[in-house]
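Data card: per-record layout.
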Amino acid sequence: MKKILLPLTLLIFACSGSDNEGNPCIYEPTLSTETVTDITVNSATLNGVISVVSENCEVPNNTEQGFVYSTEIQPTLDDIKVNVNGTSISTSILGLQQNTTYYVRSFLTNNLGEFYGNEVSFTTDLLINITLPSIVFGTQEWTKENAYHTTYRDGTPIPEVTGSQWQNLTSGAWCYYDNDPTKPRLYNWYAVMGIHDTDPNTPNKEFAPEGWHVPTDAEWTTLENYLIANGYNYDGTTTGNKIAKSMASTSGWFPWNIVGTPGNDQSSNNSSGFNAVTGYVNTLQIYFWALNEYSSNPNNYGSVRVLDNKYVNLFGSGLPKFGKANVRLVRN
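The structure for this 332-residue chain is written out next.
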């Protein structure tokens, strides 16, 4: 992840007029110097401070404040808007396209009008150039975070699809859980297979960044066997599959009263560091795609690995190819 600091000196403006005693009013809401940092393939962090100076007159009510951004210069409130409350601004914008230049301005609106700061720009990384956080398990290196990108390796967009049309898809797509951008980004099986259109004669794309791939069923089994053999069963044994707790995140699971399950004593989860994050409250299950069709129904189902709040094991199953699941990656 690269760190880029882009200084942004923002607008200072004043209102004219006078108070009840005829003294001139001075009103200076100042959007201070700001930075754009932590620029990756599909996100950037925006930081700054809002302050107001007023003499002799009442400060107008601020109705909105935050950032606007666009791939076109001089973004306005008609473009994509990120509202931020309070005087300290720190927020992330997500879902950006790789290798794309964006333009950002802070904004403040109130009963005096609509005001913008100076413009800065940044360019997101290429998918082939990014460094992914990872963890080594024996002979394998896995990403520590779920995939979150919105393009195939060559930059071809993976479309976001919402609503009932999702179940009719036969090509790659992504969506947010519950269509909420604060929650995980999920993909259908066609996306992880690189099936980017409905033409059977079109070559498939690569879903993963350069140097990585979506794990197969066999590679998931290799991970399971390593964790079992190295004492990551919840009871410390080295036989039987009881590794779910060691892979699950330490919060977010629906509570369960059976010892050794992800939903029980959640603070003791994730001893392996795999950190299967749920991203939402009271999760029952989390699915991860494998790069295989499901053997029991290969025409309609893809293969998944499942963590469940009430089971001690990581287990394999099938999910309709239009289904929604998380993705982890393995180093080539």
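Known properties of this structure: The longest strand covers residues 44-55. The first helix runs from residue 189 to 192.

See the next section for split statistics.
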